[in-house]
């Protein structure tokens, strides 16, 4: 099969690494060749963060280049807009509609662009926006945004409920399992 | 068992399986997780050393004692360890010694983009270069075989994309070799001129033997291609970009050992293709070798020696089309890294800026004191350079500016190589004021313990170096401790120490706000009625404060209640009781 590519983007500290860990486990379990690539260090300090998840029969490059992503899973609205060039024609963006102001906006040196969802859709991108923060809070913790978004992702990819649940069980601490399951389901059904 | 592993985790697995027993490293992105993962194996002794030179010397000592040993560092760490490196090349080893070094092309988290392959050639130590996690594991084990067969340390070269990518590995069992006996051997281990002169020819002979090995080694492999109009020589992550871009179209010579490189194998490969192209990041290292062989070769005429490559870049430069997706016609504001909410460094930089001081900076999270709106740092060069630079600035300056200049350095960086600079200040008596930003952890690389924290790599309590005593012991009489959250007190103490006519150290002490044991009072509130919109609170660059409709607003999901902004508000609009 042709290699599939998902970019997980967000703001350092939002929990993007757990999402990629969970996906990696699920994909490996299905027998795919998998590469998950991320950058640690300075960029994590509240900066823009990117993780590449790739799977198929044979995956070579650890990174996703412009024009290659099937899907961008974005933890924050501006970060989705930053990476549209990485999408394939007709690619999909699943985005948490939460807005987190970057320092240039906080400091008044730049403005947070308006109507980004509409502008991305106007480029022919399939935009699936949801308020993952509220759903996570509904599930019991604002930290569960990642599982809400995973649930939403599940709608668009052909993996079974059992495969997802197995991956979740192996990626989150037991005491938070119920909360995360609920967040996943809310993301799926919202 | 098949599992997904980070390249760094796979190196640690390779050390475990390869019978390594001793690991000593200094953390540095992107190399840090090798040692953290190694520490999780009970059979392995692993430690954080104060710096990379100490780490390499400790690993060398361990190999002399007869146990396979390892140390890891980032590319700039190898500069620090270069002194022992070049002479360990002459002594060779007893049990195997492997040195992991991780480059950072693209400078994701580094102060320069040096190409560590030059060190292999310069020190005449062989260097293996894996291209994914499976090779990272396999090459770590192979490195020990080579080390003991050829009586040499072996460099294992990683890079950001190999270190920080997870790919599939198959794990095996640990095989612990029989411990080698240590035998006194002055001619081999005492590198004074008479002995070293005899060792140098051994090094040259070893290089010849390793070059011969490189000719037939499985890790330098030719992969056939259908289109022989172009043949590509590559290694590391660039090999993956080439295969991604072209699959099995062009023949590829994939080098697993980057120094010494084969000669005949490269000539033979070149003879089968119309055009020879080298695809490598940073310098034209393989390319220069091909030119030395008298081959016509293309490389840096196509690819930049700056930054990382990618599959699209490789395609494009070799004449194939690439198509990017649609970009928004919109200015997307950058999202640079920032100091976290509650970071104890923020307020001290605010004070330094307010006092209009010249600030010689160093390497760590606090380097972010250089960015807007704080913009409080004048220089950042390398580990320790703040203190030694301050001495020169003050001694040579001897003017009003010199009297208004300080150095800032973190606790771990101070131990790494700041203390020698401080000894110079004491010994040569410059009227310098050094500020140690003691956040009780090595922060930027992700919370590693260090000699000042009282805990070792395995998390066990251990000897805690007392910074005050250390500063006193090297001859600094004036040592003050301040709480960075108390800005008035900080300003007063900095003023007093700058005015004092002798060297001084100010320890700005408060643990990193992200440490789990740190208890925060919880978010403060903003009162829009009281807020006049003066933006005084915006001057500290806290990510938890923004202006909404002309009034300061606190993001309660980020604010930890450090209270620094409260000290700036003249209208009582910020605080826990507003």
Helix content of chain B: 25-40%
Specify the biggest β-sheet of chain B. Answer: 7 strands, mixed
Based on CA atoms alone, the radius of gyration of chain A comes out at: 16 Å
| Structural class by SSE content of chain A | alpha/beta
CATH superfamily placement of the largest domain in chain B: Thiamin diphosphate (ThDP)-binding fold, Pyr/PP domains
| Largest protein-protein interface | A-B, 62 and 60 residues
Number of helices of chain B: 20
Number of strands of chain A: 6
Q: Mind telling me the CATH class of chain A?
A: Alpha Beta
Domains of chain B, number: 4
What would the CATH topology of chain A be? Pyruvate-ferredoxin Oxidoreductase, domain 3
Numbering strands along the chain, what is their spatial order in the largest sheet of chain B?
3-2-4-5-7-6-12
Mean pLDDT of chain A: 93
In terms of quaternary structure, the protein is heterodimer
CATH superfamily of chain A: Pyruvate-ferredoxin oxidoreductase, PFOR, domain III
Query: Going across the major beta sheet of chain A, what is the strand order?
Result: 2-3-1-4-5-6
Low-confidence stretches of chain A: none
With helices defined by DSSP (H or I, 4 residues minimum), what is the helix count of chain A?
8
């Amino acid at each position: 099969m042709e290699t599939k590519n998902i970019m997980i983007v967000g703001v350092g500290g939002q929990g993007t690494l757990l999402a990629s860990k969970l996906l990696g486990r699920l994909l490996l379990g299905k027998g795919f060749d998998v590469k998950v690539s991320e950058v640690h260090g300075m960029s994590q300090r509240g900066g823009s963060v990117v993780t590449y998840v790739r799977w198929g029969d044979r995956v070579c490059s650890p990174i996703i280049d412009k024009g290659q992503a099937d899907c961008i899973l974005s933890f924050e609205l501006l970060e989705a807009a930053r990476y549209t060039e990485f999408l394939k024609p007709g690619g999909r963006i699943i985005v948490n509609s939460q807005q987190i102001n970057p320092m240039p906006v906080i400091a008044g040196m730049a403005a947070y662009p308006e109507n980004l969802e509409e502008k991305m859709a106007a480029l022919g991108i399939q935009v699936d926006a949801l308020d993952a923060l509220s759903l996570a809070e509904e599930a019991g913790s604002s930290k569960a945004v990642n599982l809400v978004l995973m649930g939403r992702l599940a709608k668009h990819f052909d993996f079974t409920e059992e495969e997802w649940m197995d991956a979740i069980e192996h990626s989150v601490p037991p005491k938070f399992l119920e909360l995360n399951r609920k967040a996943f389901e809310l993301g799926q059904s919202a | 068992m098949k599992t997904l592993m980070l390249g760094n985790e796979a190196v640690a697995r390779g050390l475990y399986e390869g019978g390594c027993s001793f690991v000593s490293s200094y953390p540095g992105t992107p190399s840090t997780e090798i040692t953290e993962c190694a520490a999780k194996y009970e059979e392995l002794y692993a430690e954080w050393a104060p710096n990379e030179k100490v780490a390499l010397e400790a690993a060398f000592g361990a190999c002399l004692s007869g146990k396979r040993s390892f140390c890891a560092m980032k590319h700039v760490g190898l500069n620090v360890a270069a002194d022992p490196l070049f002479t360990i090349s002459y002594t060779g080893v007893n049990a195997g010694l492997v040195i992991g070094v991780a480059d950072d092309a693209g400078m994701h988290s580094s102060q320069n983009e040096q190409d560590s392959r030059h060190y292999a050639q310069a020190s005449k130590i062989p260097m293996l270069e894996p291209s994914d996690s499976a090779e990272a594991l396999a090459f770590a084990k192979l490195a020990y075989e080579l080390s003991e067969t050829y009586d040499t340390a072996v460099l294992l070269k990683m890079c950001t994309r190999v270190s920080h990518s997870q790919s599939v590995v198959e794990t095996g069992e640990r095989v612990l070799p029989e411990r080698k006996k240590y035998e006194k051997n002055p001619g081999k281990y005492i590198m004074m001129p008479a002995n070293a002169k005899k060792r140098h020819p051994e090094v040259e002979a070893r290089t010849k033997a390793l070059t011969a090995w490189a000719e037939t080694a499985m890790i330098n492999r030719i992969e056939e291609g259908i289109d022989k109009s172009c043949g590509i020589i590559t290694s590391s992550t660039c090999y993956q970009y080439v295969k991604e871009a072209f699959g099995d179209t062009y023949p590829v010579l994939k080098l697993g050992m980057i120094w010494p490189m084969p000669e005949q194998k490269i000539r033979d490969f070149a003879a089968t293709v119309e055009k020879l192209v080298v695809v490598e990041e940073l310098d034209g290292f393989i390319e220069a070798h091909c030119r030395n062989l008298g081959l016509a070769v293309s490389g840096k005429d196509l690819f930049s020696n700056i930054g990382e490559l990618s599959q699209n870049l490789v395609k494009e430069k070799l004449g194939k089309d690439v198509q990017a997706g649609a970009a928004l016609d919109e200015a997307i504001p950058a999202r640079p890294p920032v100091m976290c909410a509650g970071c104890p460094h923020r307020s001290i930089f605010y004070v330094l800026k307010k006092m209009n001081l010249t600030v010689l900076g160093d390497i760590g999270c606090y380097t972010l004191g250089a960015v807007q709106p704080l913009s409080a740092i004048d220089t950042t060069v390398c580990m320790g350079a703040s203190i030694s630079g301050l001495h020169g600035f003050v001694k040579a300056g001897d003017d009003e500016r010199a009297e208004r200049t300080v150095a800032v350095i973190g606790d771990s960086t101070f131990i790494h190589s700041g203390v020698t600079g401080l000894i110079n200040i004491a010994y040569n008596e410059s009227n310098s004021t050094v500020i140690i930003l003691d956040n009780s952890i090595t922060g930027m690389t992700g919370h590693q313990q260090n000699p000042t924290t009282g805990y070792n790599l395995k998390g066990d309590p251990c000897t805690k170096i007392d910074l005050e005593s250390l500063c006193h012991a090297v001859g600094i009489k004036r040592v003050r401790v301040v709480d960075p959250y108390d800005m008035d007190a900080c300003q007063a103490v900095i003023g007093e120490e700058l005015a004092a006519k002798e060297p001084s150290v100010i320890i700005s002490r408060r643990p990193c706000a992200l440490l789990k044991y740190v208890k925060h009072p919880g978010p403060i509130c903003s009162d829009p009625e009281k807020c006049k919109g003066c933006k005084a609170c915006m001057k500290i660059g806290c990510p938890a404060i923004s202006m909404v409709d002309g009034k300061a607003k606190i993001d309660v999901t980020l604010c930890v209640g450090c209270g620094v902004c409260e000290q700036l508000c003249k209208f009582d609009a910020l605080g826990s009781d507003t």
